Amino acid sequence: MPIRPKFRPIRHLLCTLSLMMSASLCAQDHSECSSCHTRGINDPQAGVATLRTALPQLCIDCHQGRIAAGEHRINIQPISAHPATLPLLEGRVSCSSCHDPHGTQPAQLRLEAAHLCQDCHRK
Asked: Which structural domain range is residue 99 located in?
């Protein structure tokens, strides 16, 4: 069930606070390569490890609650310039725009939580 619009700011605040405290409200374990990759994980001859499913569906398969809650909007084309540190997927904002599945930051964010949103949302 989607969060009612009047409660979205509260949810947004809770998520931001959880990211800043190095904990996610809906944390997932990305420690197993085989959760996302099929072959090439332990085989240097195979080259790049292949994904089980194309992005962003691969992320959605495990993180459906984040999308359903309306807190993570994806497949949006930016209306202004975006920073190079936040890559687009086929010209659109995707999960991997803000999150690096191999990253070491809290919630696997590409930037510190305090700066991540402001890089695109200057208001």
From this structure: 5-119
